[in-house]
């Protein structure tokens, strides 16, 4: 069994990329619930849907991060509320809820992204 403390592995997605946010709880937490606008502490891993290539990971840096949900991409703002501390959630985020359409100026623009997020704390 996977526990949230373990670095996640993302199974390669199959089929076409979704056009809307897909939220899948991998481990349901039992702690405090994240609400819109909360400050959260998380560990996360992000991969590109099409290639499966990792583009960012707090595990790779060896430390969790803490930030307000309001400052994040829309897919995180919509996908983390309702999650409980101790939980692990997978978010599949289409471009319009991530970094915008291709050519929008970010290296991940136009890409569907998959994140696995462990919620460590809310404040």
Question: Tell me, what's the shape?
Answer: globular
Fraction in helix: under 10%
What gap, in angstroms, lies between the N and C termini? 28 Å
Structural domains: how many: 1
Q: State the secondary-structure class.
A: mainly beta
- The CATH level-2 architecture is identified as Roll
CATH T-level topology: Chitinase A, domain 3
CATH class: Alpha Beta
Order of helices and strands: EEEHEHEE
Could you tell me the mean pLDDT?
A: 93
Low-confidence stretches: none
Give the beta-strand count: 6
Protein name: Peptidyl-prolyl cis-trans isomerase
InterPro entries: PPIase_dom_sf, PPIase_FKBP_dom
Organism: Nakamurella endophytica
GO molecular function: peptidyl-prolyl cis-trans isomerase activity
Please outline the helices and strands.
Elements: E1 22-27, E2 39-48, E3 54-57, H1 58-61, E4 65-68, H2 74-79, E5 88-93, E6 113-122
Antiparallel strand pairs: 1-5, 2-3, 2-4, 2-6, 5-6
Q: Could you describe the 3D structure shown?
A:
The protein is mostly beta strands and 123 residues long. It has one domain: Chitinase A, domain 3 (Roll), CATH 3.10.50. It is built from two helices and six strands. Strands 1, 2, 3, 4, 5 and 6 form a six-stranded antiparallel sheet that branches. Strand 2 and strand 3 form a beta hairpin. GO terms for molecular function: peptidyl-prolyl cis-trans isomerase activity.
């Amino acid at each position: 069994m996977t526990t949230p403390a373990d670095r996640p592995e993302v199974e390669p997605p199959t089929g076409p990329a979704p056009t809307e946010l897909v939220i899948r709880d991998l481990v349901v937490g039992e702690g405090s619930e994240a609400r819109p606008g909360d400050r959260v502490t998380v560990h996360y891993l992000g991969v590109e849907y099409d290639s499966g290539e990792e583009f960012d990971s707090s595990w790779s840096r060896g430390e969790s991060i803490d930030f307000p949900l309001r400052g994040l991409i829309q897919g995180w703002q919509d996908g983390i509320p309702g999650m409980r501390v101790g939980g692990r959630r997978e978010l599949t985020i289409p471009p319009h809820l991530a970094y915008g359409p291709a050519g929008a100026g970010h290296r991940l623009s136009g890409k569907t992204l998959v994140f696995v997020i462990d919620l460590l704390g809310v404040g």
